[in-house]
Design a protein that fits this description.
The complex is a heterodimer of chains A (about 325) and B (about 350). By secondary structure, chain A is of the alpha/beta class. Helices cover about 30% and strands about 20% of the residues of chain A. Chain B has 2 domains: about 240 residues, MetI-like fold; about 55 residues, no CATH class. Classes of the chains: A alpha/beta (about 325), B mainly alpha (about 350).
Chain lengths: ~325, ~350
């Protein structure tokens, strides 16, 4: 049974009477132990997808309008807010992009980590919690965990704080871990360590990981499958091998072309995708990518492509209607 | 284990380095502490009586009639007279009186003189008496005790309501916030003084009723500050992270938002205390406060301004009022200075 099934997820931003579509028809599935990479530019809806799964959309301004979310076979959309709150932190966890601000500045790290146990395991004694925390910090490679517990966030480096966040997210062995660009704020050496950590831990615990990033290099390293998002839709979803070897959607091809390569001479200009990501308010018929696509046809301009064989593009597969 | 975080410690150190604020805080704390045992310092009952080989402690406890000490009356012993009698008799009995041997309610009459009596060290009326013949110093001390603890009670109740509601408004936002804001605006426009006057004309307001009335019309101020502070904190990443952990709204408000808004709350405290003292004094001055003969600064001020020919009344109470308010303001200033976030920013 898959850990997570998302079907036709739509999210709108409601501004007065006007509804701005932010996500449209997002379908995703995640099996236990699998790592799914969610790639795309800023504003393509990656983080929003993660927040929608967690039930942390900034309501009432942004809300889910359509679709079903099933977590371990159980529908999340019909669950009470209280029940979803209980799932958060224990069965599903999320790591945020900014480790510098994700910890409360006026609380000791230890008491923030302990909060997780106080919420979800109220029967544990504080000495048991302390032992669990020390073990958890040691697992994510924090040296001197006892001492770190009494530190304040500002006394820790970014890498250490992100490890704290990861330790917190993994402490109760969640079935689903959503990582929202957890390495963006870190330097490259720490980034490699953190990625390693997430991979080994997901292998050991069997956690399904939804890894949100705009860094395709990270996904090549980490993901089993990759879904590419563009302007609130998933445009391509393939295994990590196929997506790098034979990208189907012109957007994915463009993304891969614009990665700097070691075998190019330093004078070569980087390939770019012309144009801008359309604003969500922009009315655009057909494929959202057609204004920037050099292979767009008349069909692309007025008909929305469906996802077939891993790509939502009229240039691939049998697109009818 | 109580370990303060380093930022709080630097704030406290900075507060300590602001001399007048720090000393004012110490003096005020001492005065508040001493006011709790005012009975030992200012009282018509003796601290200690040694009579026929045994010791008596009349300060607290039941009334000791004069017959206990061999007097010929059954009402409460006049310890000042007893002291005089013992020292004249010279039989080894003695009486230790408090610093100011008068209680704030007793009316002192002296033959051939009319109240108010001017200050007289020999009679131990160090600040004279008021127009009823009650010792001004005693009334000042007990009036201070009532005023300061009235302020503290007012502060605690208004802050609990204001902070809880403000946080809730700020955290929920949207229609709840808008609606409660409008209700508060309407409620703020109820004229407080008229309500007090109406209530005072029906019942005599006691300490509890007066505090409740003032809380009822005074809790709104804090909601505005807490509401905005909560808005600001709730948008920060650690709140989202706490929600991702499964923390509920009250846990987030209590454990994450409130500690981060502490400096705002602490900064307001001294000014609220000063406001509370002034408000009670003003109400008593107007005659809508605590009923006579409760010792009160407002009532003394009223007497003093009516009887400028007895300048010791007005000068004592004005001096006392100024001293306390200035000290409270110094504390407030020092806290504001010490907690000013702009002083902690280090520009690299």
């Amino acid at each position: 049974m898959s850990v997570l099934e998302i079907e036709a997820l739509s999210v709108d931003a409601v501004d007065g009477t006007q509804a701005v579509p932010l996500l449209r028809g997002v379908d995703l599935t995640l099996s236990p132990g699998e790592t799914l990479g969610l790639a795309g530019e800023s504003g393509s809806g990656k983080t929003l997808t993660g927040l929608a799964i967690m039930g942390l959309l900034p309501q009432p301004a942004v809300r889910m309008t359509q679709g079903t979310l099933r977590f371990q076979g159980q529908s999340l959309t019909t669950l009470s807010p209280k029940a979803r709150q209980q799932l958060r932190g224990s069965a599903m966890a999320m790591i945020f992009q900014e480790p510098m601000t994700a910890l409360n500045p006026v609380q000791r790290v230890g008491s923030q980590l302990a909060e997780l146990y106080q919420i979800h395991r109220p029967n544990l004694s504080s000495s048991t919690i302390r032992q669990e925390l020390i073990q958890g910090l040691a697992n994510v490679g924090v040296s001197e965990p006892e001492r770190r517990l009494t530190s304040y966030p500002h006394e820790l480096s970014g890498g250490l704080r992100q490890r704290m966040m990861i330790a917190m997210a993994l402490a109760l062995k969640p079935r689903l871990l959503i990582c929202d660009e957890p390495t963006t704020a870190l330097d490259v050496t720490i980034q490699a360590q953190v990625l390693d950590l997430i991979r080994t831990l997901s292998r050991e615990i069997g956690t399904a990981v939804l890894f949100i990033t705009h860094d395709l290099g990270v996904l090549a390293e980490l993901a089993d499958r990759v879904a590419v998002m563009y302007a609130g839709r998933i445009v391509e979803e393939q295994s990590v091998w196929d997506i790098f070897a034979s990208p189907k959607h012109p957007y994915t091809q463009g993304l891969l072309r614009s990665i700097p390569r070691l075998d190019q001479s330093a004078q070569t200009r980087l390939a770019i995708i012309p144009g801008q990501v359309p604003q969500p308010t922009e009315p655009l018929s057909g494929c959202r990518f057609h204004p920037r696509c050099d292979q767009a046809t008349a069909l692309c301009r007025h008909t929305q492509p469906r996802m077939i064989d891993g790509a939502a593009c009229h240039l691939f597969g049998e697109q009818t209607c | 284990m109580m370990r303060l975080d380093p930022i709080t410690r630097t704030k406290l150190a900075r507060f300590r380095s602001i001399g007048r604020g720090y000393w004012s805080a110490l003096i005020l704390a001492a005065l508040m502490g001493l006011s709790l045992c005012a009975e030992l310092l200012v009282n018509s009952r003796a601290l200690l009586v040694f009579y026929q080989g045994s010791l008596y402690f009349p300060t607290y406890g039941a009334v000791m009639p004069g017959t206990v000490f061999g007097e010929d009356y059954a009402y409460e012993t006049d310890y000042r007279a007893l002291k005089q009698r013992f020292s004249e008799a010279g039989q080894g009995d003695w009486v230790v009186m408090p610093l100011i041997p008068y209680n704030p309610l007793e009316i002192n009459a002296y033959e051939g003189e009319f109240a108010p009596h001017p200050p007289n060290a020999a009679r131990e009326h160090y600040l004279g008496t008021d127009i009823a013949g009650r010792d001004v110093a005693a009334r000042l001390v007990y009036g201070f005790r009532i005023a300061i603890w009235f302020s503290v009670a007012l502060l605690l109740s208004t802050y609990v309501i204001g902070i809880a509601l403000g946080c809730w408004m700020g955290y929920r936002g949207g229609w709840i916030d808008l609606g409660v804001q409008r209700l508060i605006e309407i409620w703020s426009n109820v004229p407080f003084l008229y309500v007090i006057m109406i209530v005072a004309s029906i019942v005599t307001p006691g300490f509890g009723l007066l505090v409740s009335l003032m809380v009822l019309f005074g809790w709104m101020g804090m909601t505005w500050y807490m509401r905005t502070a909560t808005y600001k904190e709730a948008a920060r990443d650690y709140v989202l992270a706490a929600r991702a952990l499964g923390a509920g709204p009250w846990r987030i408000i209590g454990r994450h938002i409130l500690p981060n808004t502490m400096s705002i709350i602490v900064t307001f405290i001294p000014f609220s205390i000063a406001g509370g003292i002034t408000a009670l004094t003003a109400l008593d001055y107007l005659g809508f406060g605590l009923p006579p003969p409760t010792p009160s600064w407002g009532e003394l001020l009223k007497q003093g301004t009516d009887r400028l020919d007895a300048p010791w009344i007005v000068s004592s109470v004005v001096a006392g009022l100024i001293a306390i308010l200035v000290m409270v303001t110094f504390v407030g200033e020092a806290i504001r200075e010490a907690f000013d976030p702009r002083r902690q920013v280090r520009y690299a």
